[in-house]
Structures are given as structure tokens and as C-alpha cells.
């Protein structure tokens, strides 16, 4: 059965097994969804799918590397653009300028 399941995305172990709708790795303990199409969707901190042009709110004070500036919690960022990489949102933060954000630190604003 392990031949038909993908290897663990964290440690590449070939010993993944299925538990309900999740796949689990016995070596590192990582759990992931068996639905591979869902992995390509960028989601905010509460699981809402994000798209280009969405408006998001920062949910945590974020220190800006190399400066003493901080993006304050509650800052509303309009017109985001999704990109590949660790910082998966490119945007212009009011009062700061262009920067990259991680989707786990934002929440989608209902339109």
C-alpha cells in the first residue's frame, strides 16, 4: 500500500500511511491532506483561500527586518498579489511600502 501513496513532503519518507482523509508520516510525525490540489491554494491564518486582489488584515505585529519599523496588528492591506516562496504575498503596506508577507500572519477581509 505504501507504493501508491506519495512520500512525506517534510522528510521524504516512503512509509506514509493513510488515516481517514489525512496522510501521516511515522518517521517525522508530519500530517498532510491526501487531496493534492488543495496544497496549491494559498490560505490565510484561519483557512480562507486567498486570491490576487484580495484585501487582508495583519493579525500580529510584524517587525521589518533591517529597520526599527513595525507593521501593526490590524493594518489593512489592499490589492495583494500571490507569489511562490516563503513570503507568499507581495503587497504595498500603508506607511511602509512594498514588502512580502507570509499568509499565516494575515486574515482575509470580507468584501
UniProtKB/TrEMBL annotation:
Pfam family, one: Zn_Ribbon_YjdM
Domain of life: Bacteria
Domain Protein YjdM N-terminal: 4-33
Domain Protein YjdM C-terminal: 42-109
InterPro entries for the chain: YjdM, YjdM_C, YjdM_N
Similarity comment text for this entry: Belongs to the YjdM family.
Protein name per the record: Alkylphosphonate utilization protein
Species: Tritonibacter horizontis
Amino acid at each position: 500500500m505504501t507504493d501508491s501513496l506519495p512520500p512525506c513532503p517534510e522528510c521524504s519518507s516512503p512509509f506514509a500511511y493513510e488515516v481517514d482523509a489525512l496522510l501521516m508520516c511515522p518517521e517525522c510525525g508530519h500530517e498532510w491532506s491526501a487531496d493534492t490540489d488543495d496544497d496549491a491554494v494559498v490560505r490565510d491564518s484561519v483557512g480562507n483561500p486567498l486570491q490576487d486582489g484580495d484585501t487582508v488584515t495583519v493579525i500580529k505585529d510584524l517587525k521589518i527586518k533591517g529597520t526599527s519599523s513595525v507593521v501593526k496588528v490590524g493594518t489593512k492591506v489592499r490589492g495583494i498579489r500571490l507569489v511562490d516562496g516563503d513570503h507568499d504575498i507581495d503587497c504595498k503596506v500603508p506607511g511602509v511600502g512594498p514588502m512580502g508577507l507570509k499568509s499565516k500572519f494575515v486574515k482575509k477581509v470580507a468584501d
